[in-house]
Amino acid sequence: MFTQDSMNEGCNEEYMEDSEILNQSRSYNVLKAEYEKCRQENHDLKRKLRVNEAMLREVHEANEILEHSHDQQISEKKQYILKVDEKHRTLTKEYENTILNLETKLEQQAEEIEKLRQRADQCIKTECEAVIVDQFANLSFETDNISLKKRVDELLSILQEERKKYEYAEESIAELKSRCDHYEHYTRSIKEQLAEKDQTLEEIRAELSLKRTELESLQMDPTCKSRKGNSIFAEVEDRRQNVMNKMNVLREKYMELKRICKSQIMEIKKLRTERVATLRKLDNDADHTFTENEELIKKYKSRISDLESKLKIEIKKNSNSKQLNCSDTSFRYFQSLVDTQKKEMEELRIKVEDLCTKLLMQEETKMNITKQLHYWRYKASSLEVQMYAAQAELRLDLMNDAEHEVSNVLKDLTHKAEHEDSNVLKDLTHKYNTGATIDEKQSTSSQRINSSAHALPLNYSLEIEHTGCLVENPEEYKTHIQLTDKENSNNTSSDIEVKIITPKRSCKFEHNQSTNNDENKPFHAVENTAIKKSKVSPSTTEHEYPVVYISTNFND
Question: Which run of H or E residues covers position 497?
Fold first, then answer.
């Protein structure tokens, strides 16, 4: 029994331990999951906190920037207001000075008129008292005085008109001076641009003249020493390549001019859009000024109606006060106090009315200033548009002139190249035909050539190079010389070069016929004819003998 109980207790203890371990593992897993959740939440909260801190920093920076810009705008507006106030003060001072001058002049003229009237009255009185018979004369004097008074009034009106005209003329003169200065500056800039364009055109013309001289020299000069023995088609190919290079350069210039033209057209379109925008602004400004004028007129009308109503009230009060005539001293005393207060009130009202009128005048002057500003802005924008349009027209004219010159040069070059190619082809056909006839002669006398070649002495050797014919006999050499002389007499631009060579012991006979299978070249490549004669003696080793190079130059 004791063993069973001990076994049961051991099993129970083991079961309890296992259950405790399971519970602990479960609680550990739960706590671990909660820990992970808390850790994730903590990470999310930290990330949100960082984002919020970054947002707050950005908001603070934006707020500081906005405050700084706001302060700058406030300072700029204050400066602008101060400038406008200063301008307004200067204008008011100028207007006040002009008004004072006009008032002084009017007072002087009124005094002069009064003096004249007094003199006229004195004259009339003396004449009336002196003699009754002179009434007709007095009447005539009176009529003269009336006419003179009318004349004086007319002269005063004419004087005022002339002053107005003088002021308007001064303003117009100032405007014209400013315009003249602007146009002079504009003409100077245009002249400078034209001078630059003239310099560039002169440089281009000089380059063109140099290129033309080089072309003429290439066409007139004989073949270079480096090209001796080369074919005529090689020279033509070199010339064609030079012409093609020049044409490519001119084509690039033309493309640049075309690109500049496109950019100028885009600038013209932009200027047109700006002009439309300025016209719209002018229309809006005109509408705004019209509405402001209407508002000012309404204010003036309301002010006049208020003053009329106040006048009527004051007239009624004065009439009522005159009707009340009491004999009491106390009433008179109070009446005097009331009168003094009324006078003070009237003075204050007059001051207020003066201030209101001054404010209205200031508003009117501001309106006039704004009108003038709008007008001058529109004028400046229109002048700028005209200036840009004139510059664009000048550039287009210069570009058209340059394009015309480039096209003329291209036409001249293409015409010359075609003419040269046609002449070269004609000469080549002629040479080819003459070479074919000589080849036929050579085929008939091949045996004689071989026998005569063995019969020639060793101290004489003939070296004749030609692409289309072979000369190995002195007789045929003579005929060949005659043919070349005829060709030289026909061709005025043929050249002869003399070269010193060393003699050779052996007789050299060459027959180089080169055929070209290229489709672009219709004929065989023919080299320049070279005739060499050398003499060798058994005693001497080196002697000087002439070598004749016959080369044809293809010119227009």
Answer: strand 495-501
HSE-CB for 504 with a 13 A CA cutoff: 11
List pLDDT tens digits, range 139-191.
Answer: 666 676 677 777 777 777 777 887 787 788 778 777 877 777 877 787 787 77
Q: Which of 405, 394, 397 is nearest to 205 (CA)?
A: 405
Q: Is residue 404 part of a domain?
A: yes
What domain range is 278 assigned to?
A: 19-125+139-218+234-319+334-429
Inter-helix orientation angle 329-444/2-130, to 10°? 110
Contacts of 431 (CB under 8 A, 6+ apart): 468, 526
Q: Show Cβ contacts of residue 427 under 8 Å, excluding neighbours closer than 6 positions.
A: 232, 552, 554
Whether this model's pTM surpasses 0.70: no
Rounded Cα–Cα distance for residues 408 and 397 (Å) = 16
Structure tokens, 516: 């070209």
Angle in degrees, CA 80, 85, 90, rounded to 5:
125
Taking the CA atoms of residue 376, residue 379, residue 384 and residue 387 in that order, the dihedral angle to the nearest 10 degrees is -140
- From the list 463, 411, 471, 391, the residue with the least C-alpha distance to 438 is 471
Q: Is residue 96 one of the residues assigned to a domain?
A: yes
Three-state secondary structure call for residue 506: coil
Joined together, the tokens standing for residue 537 give 């003696």
Q: Is residue 130 part of a domain?
A: no
Taking only the tens place, the pLDDT of each residue in 465-485 is 333 344 444 455 455 555 555
Looking at the structure of the chain, the number of domains it has is 1
Dihedrals phi, psi of 495, to nearest 5 degrees: -125, 150
Three-class SS of residue 556? coil
